[in-house]
Amino acid sequence: MMVIPGGTIAMRDDRTGRAWVVELLSFAIGCHPVTQAQYAAVTGLWPSVRVSAQCPVENVSWLDAVRFCNLLSETAGLRACYALDDDGMGASRIAGSNGYRLPTEAEWEYACRAGTNGPRYGDINEIAWYRENSEGRTHTVGQKQPNGWGLHDMLGNVWEWCEDQYDPEVYGPYRVFRGGGWSDTERGCLATNRRRSHPTFAIDDLGFRVVRPLA
């Protein structure tokens, strides 16, 4: 994992035009999305459509990702971050937890940008697996150039679940995912691009990476 220094990020919802600023504390984040081998080591499961140990795990729902975070925390002797809702459609953060969790949307975009302000942190063919170069599949993590903070595959390869609800007043339990995947065009692989789906949704270009608080 890489330590990301605290700072502020200006966020914007292009759908509503709403803009806001988020102040972030330092945190640690995975250098790449969770791999299939890492997922299997914690859960015993291989859910991916295209099985390859060092490719990102995919075909996992938001709830699958949250359960993985809790299991990983328990394995590491840390306090689990999430309490799953009784209806099985969501989870809430446990106060005082020090374990692994999904990044907030602000943390994800801040880490992706790594101090840059453009739509991407580099040339798309150098940093991302997307429709034009992926050959219709995921690829081993870490093969493309990292961003300025040493993070690989923040754009392309697989979309990544974030902790946040998309817009609870309109979409209820739907959660955010970011970054674009192997099947997307250039327009899909932008630091600002956000999509949403139900927390039980899973597909073969959607995975996740984990973060840990440092304080």
Describe it.
It holds the Pfam family FGE-sulfatase. One of its GO terms (molecular function) is formylglycine-generating oxidase activity. The structure is a single chain. The chain contains five helices and eleven strands, in the order ββββααββααβαββββ. It is globular. 18% of the residues lie in helices and 20% in strands. With 215 residues, the protein is an alpha+beta fold. The strands form four sheets. A four-stranded mixed beta sheet has the order 9-8-7-10. A three-stranded antiparallel beta sheet has the order 1-4-11, with no helix packed on it.
Strand content: 15-25%
Using the alpha-carbon principal axes, give the shape. Answer: globular
What number of structural domains do the residues give? 1
Number of helices: 5
Task: Assign a percent range to the helix content.
Answer: 10-25%
Task: Report the uncertain regions.
Answer: none
State the distance separating the first and last CA atoms: 16 Å
Sheet having the most strands: 4 strands, mixed
What is the CATH C level class, in words?
A: Alpha Beta
> What is the fold-level CATH name, i.e. the topology?
paralog of FGE (formylglycine-generating enzyme)
In the CATH hierarchy, what is the architecture at level 2? Alpha-Beta Complex
Q: What's the number of extended β-strand segments?
A: 11
Helix-strand sequence:
EEEEHHEEHHEHEEEE
Radius of gyration: 16 Å
CATH superfamily assignment? paralog of FGE (formylglycine-generating enzyme)
Q: Please list the strands of the largest sheet in the order they lie side by side.
A: 9-8-7-10
Mean pLDDT: 95
Class based on secondary structure composition and strand pairing: alpha+beta
